[in-house]
Every structure is written in C-alpha cells, then in structure tokens.
Amino acid sequence: MKVLVIEDDRSTADYVTGGLKEEGHDPDHAASGPIGLELACTRDYDAMVIDRMLPGIDGLSIVRALRSSGRDTPVIFLTSVSGLDDRVEGLEAGADDYLVKPFAFSELMARLNALARRSPMRKEETVLTVGDLEMNLIARTVKREGREIDLQPREFRLLEYMMRNRGRVLTRTMLLERVWDFHFDPKTNVVETHVSRLRGKVDRPYATEMIKTIRGAGYVLNVPS
Amino acid sequence: MFRPEPFRSTSFRVALLYTVFFLGSVLAILGITYVAASSEMAGILRSAVSDDMRILRQAFHAGGEGALLERMDDLTESASEDRFFMMRQSSDGAAIAGNMPPDLWRDGWTDEKLSQNTFDGSEDLKRAASRNSDGEVLLLGLGERIGPFDVMIGRNSHVLDETQEIILSAMLWGALVTTLLALVGGFIVSVGPTRRVDEIAATTRRIVEGRLDLRLPVSKRRDELDRLATDINTMLARIETLLSSLKQVSADIAHDLRTPLARLRQKLEVVRRQPRSPDEYETAIDAAIEESDAAIETFNALLRIAQIEAGTRKSRFRRLDLANVVRKTCDIYGEVAADEEHELIWKHLEPGEIEGDEELLTQAVANLLENAIRHVPAPGRIEVAVSIQNERIRLDIADDGPGVSENERERIFERLYRLDRSRTTPGSGLGLSLVAAIVELHSGTVEALDNAPGLRIRIELPTAHAALSTQNYETV
User: Fold this and answer.
1) What ipTM was predicted for this assembly?
2) Whether residue A15 is found in the same domain as residue A89
3) Whole-model pTM?
4) What does the buried/exposed string (b/e) look like for B283-318 if buried means 16 or more CB atoms within 10 Å of the residue's CB?
5) What is the pLDDT of residues A40-73, one digit of tens each?
6) Å from A104 to nearest chain B CA?
7) Could you say which of A88, A184, A189 has the minimum Cβ distance to residue B339?
8) Which of A15, B82, B141, B302 reaches 20 to 30 Å from A105, CA-CA?
9) Does residue A13 lie in a domain region?
10) Contact B332 A102 (CB under 8 A)
C-alpha cells in the first residue's frame, strides 16, 4: 500500500512511517503543506494521512483542494486532542476518517486497511455474503447455513459493518464510532457485551467461529478456515 | 491613564452641543423678529405717508389749488419733529408751506440721512436731530408733483432704527445669557455621571490589578450606566469562573499526571536494574503503555472538560428530544448492565425538546449509567426517567447502591474527586465533572440526591422554548 504521510511533527511522522514500513507498506513523507499537496497531486497513493496543523497550507485546505480537483484517495485526518470540532470540520472538508493524537499505531493501521479497500467505489450492494453467512440489506434479514437469525437493530448494524469489512481487524474505537456513534471512550464493556451477544447468535449454534477476537487490537469477521 | 475632568466628559460635550443648538434657535427667533418687525414698521410709515399724499392729491383734483392749500395747512398744523411736510413752486422752487427746507424735494420715495447743514433753519429737523447721538435725521419721504407744486411728505424713520437697535441688543444679551446658562447647566449635569464613571474607572483599575472578585457599583436608578455596569459585572463573573477553572485545570493536571508518571518511571527503573528475559520485558513494556494510556486519558478528559466549559460547543446546538437520546443510550447499556447482573429500567421517558448537542448529551447519560453500573453492587436496580416540570426537562438516574453521604454529594462533581471506597476501581474521577460541564453548557443544573437507599442524580435542562428565549436575551 502506498501511503502519503503529511505531518510536520518529526516524531509522529517517524512513528507512522516506521510502523508502515514494518507492516510492509511504502510510505512517503512530506513535512509541510505545500510539499504534501504537490506530492498528493502528482503521485498515486492508496491512502493519505494528513495532519490538521501544517506549516504553509493547513490540512483542511489540502483535503479540500484534493477533493475539488476530483481526487478521491482515502484520507485520514490527524487532529490534536484539543480540537473537539476538528473532527466534524475534517469530515466536512472531505476526509474519510479522523484520529485524535496521540494514537496507537494499530488503530491507524486498522483504519487505513478499512479505507484503502474502499476504492474503486463499488455499487450499492443489497446482499452481503461471507461464507455461509448471508445478510439481506433490503429485507433486513440474516441467514447462516440457510437458517434465519433474529437480530436486534444494533446487532444487525454491528454485523453489517463487520461483513462489509470482512477479513479486516476492526478496533474497539472504530466499532464504537460506526456502530454506536460514540465519540468517547466508555468505561464499561459496551463493545465486548454486544459482540458477545452477536456471537451467541451468529457463531455459538454453529460448528465454526466467524467472529474472532484479536488480542490488543480488535475483532475480525472472516470465513472460517 | 484617563484623568477625569468635568469639561472633558461626554455629558458636558452633549451640553455644549445643546448650547450651540439653543443659541442658534434663539438667534434665529430674534432674527426673524427683527426682519419682521422692521419691515412691518417700515410698511406702516410708508402707508401713512402715502395716505397723506393721497388726501392732498384728491383735494387738488376736487377743488383745485385752493383746496390743496387748505389741506396742506391742515397737515402743517400737525407737523412735529416726527412729521414733515413741504410744498414749493415747481417753477422756481420757492417755498409755499412746510416745516422742512424746499431744496430737500425729491421725486418719488427717498430714504435718506440728513446732516445738520441741510436743515436750513427748520426747527423740527433740529429737534429731531437733537434726539439722535449722531445729530442727523433719517427721513423717509415721498415727493410728488401736484399741479404746479412740488409736494413732499416725510416721516422721521429714526423710531424704526431705534426698534431695530433694541431687538439687536436683545439678541446679544439673549445669546450671552443662553450660553452662560447652558455652560453652567452642562457642568452641573455632567458632574453626576462623571463621578460615577470615576467610581467605575477606579474599580476597573483595581480589577486590572488582580482583584477579580470586585464588581462595579450599580445604583438603584437602573439607568444606562447601571445596565452597562450590570453587563460588565456578568462578564467579570464569567471571566472569574473561566480563570478559576483554568487555574483548577492546571493544578489538576500537575497533580494528577505527576502520580502516574512517577509510577511509570518507577516501573521502568525496576525493569532496567538487571537483565531480564524477553517475556519479562514485554510484560513491563505493556504495563508502561497501559500506564501512559491512563495518563493520556486523564489529560484528554481534563482538556475536554475545559473545552466544554469554554462554551464554544454551543455552535453545535440543535433541537432534539432528550427522551430519544436517553432511550438510545439505555438501549446500548441495557445489555451491559444485564451482563453485570443489574437491571436497567427506562420505562418512563416523557418526550421533551431541548436545544442541545446530541453527542455531548449522549456522553453525559452514558457516564451516569456507567457510574451506576460500576459502583452499584450486583444485583442492582438502575432506573432512568425523563419528565417535564414547567419549563424544564428533568432527567433522573437513580440506583439502589450504597449512595453517597450528604457531605460528599456536592463534591462528587468536582474534578478528580473520588470517594475513598472507589479509589481502587479504575477511572479518572472526571466522569461526573464532565457531566457537570455538559449540563452547565446546556444552561441546566445537576445535583446528587439521596435515593434512600442509593444515589439519585437529577439533571434539569431548560426546554427548547425556554432555552431559545434566554439565548435571544444573550444575543441582544
């Protein structure tokens, strides 16, 4: 995966590019807004990580410039912790995701993986299938091995998000944001409780397990091997 | 710095401005009087002269020379130092009758000044001149040829001049008195407000010097200065709160982050002291990451509270149903509570619209639910209700746990305040302060009540209608 990292803070930049290299990806680094914008416009990337505060041109302007020139490369916005409103501003400017500094590299990696797969844009699907698990988005029904599974609306949403991202690690924070619309860190086992209930319906009655816990990282839904 | 002087005050300047306007109007009124009175009096004089002349003319036309001479004699009898008559022979200019020299005859209207040497022995002219300081006479005259005679009728127009002088001097005195009165009045009027502005300025200087607890004096008059002072006092109160909150945050950060950092340092030092196996290193590193994550989390929570308290989030407010927010959050936590063997009940949720930030309200409700779930010993009963009380929407979250003693109930909303018995459970001690900050942002109140047994947290928020009207007040 070719990733452009536009970040002026040396240590954060090293942290991100170093991690990407370790994971076998190919990062380019730009330490200022103008250089970053030039690279973003002249080379092809699978994803970009852009800091909000940059010398020269700020992150918001870069994303706006990219979007208005028709480039839909996935962008993850990095915001400082003090900017509560930065998230909304970033998403409104055209970023696909955001991450508050300081962050764990595994979190950034999981989000990059989830985003990079998105392009080119697929047509709207009406049925999601992973192995013998089938979800009908119109009828809002779920079947495994042809047998219907009765899910609560929020369990349905959780499973849908996991099926759309089959094979990708989804972190606790990603699930909280996408499924529950929580933009804070709960002190109770909200995610664990709901994943466990979902497992009880989707996995437990069957021979193989599709939802797996990746320790210290998150959850992944995959075809049982 | 500004040195107070009555002559430089705004009210004095206003008084001066009024003086100028007032003076202008006094002068305008007198000026109009002057013009109107002079022309009116001149008109009266002229019509008297032309009347006399008409009588003579008619007499001549009716009765010829004899009648004219007769009439002329009548007029001459009434001659005085104000009324002049004269008739002469047109052919040689020889005087026939009158009290003024014959060579003064002019055809038509004349308005001329006669000096001493033209009097030619006329007693009436001399008398008229003697009343004037310059020894001259102003004559308004009409000369006409009637038959073989030159006739002239005149009036001493000095009386006109005199009236004009009287009006002019009235104007001068009027202007003088007006100016004087306005200046004195302006001074007196400006002394009051200036003294109050001085008081305000003195208080402001002391506030600048650091006495943030001082407030500007407000009188009972409710005038514009009082309104201004009241608004400034509100602003000062807000600034004081923000400043103390800032001080508090800095102190909290210093205090609360030193502890985990010190712990982290100790742990790392212990690992470093002697060589260990990779497994031991891994465990130590994981522990260090966990410890720093906790510190970062505390940091984030403090900053978030400070940011909410600063009030900038209000731009995100929109109309929403609080019952809806509570229901969604309870839906999520129902199962979490069930897993901990608690019963979460949210049957009574009365719909009520408020102006608010859904994300923050969700977090507030979530924090309260999590607090109850974590601190109530299982099996517990947690009841959530939304009801409307007058213009306010009340959210109650009640549990049947151990509760909080009365003297601690106020303090649980303070930053980093933790009950002794909850020191061992994880958490930053910021959850309830965050709730308090969010409620404050929504212009609401939060209190901890005794649920006998247990704790009841009660939040009251203004309804959308009430919130809107106070908001309007704020933007006025």
Assistant:
1) 0.84
2) yes
3) 0.64
4) ebeeebeebeebbbbbbbbbbbbbbbbeeebbeebe
5) 999 999 999 999 889 889 999 999 999 999 888 9
6) 10
7) A189
8) B302
9) yes
10) no
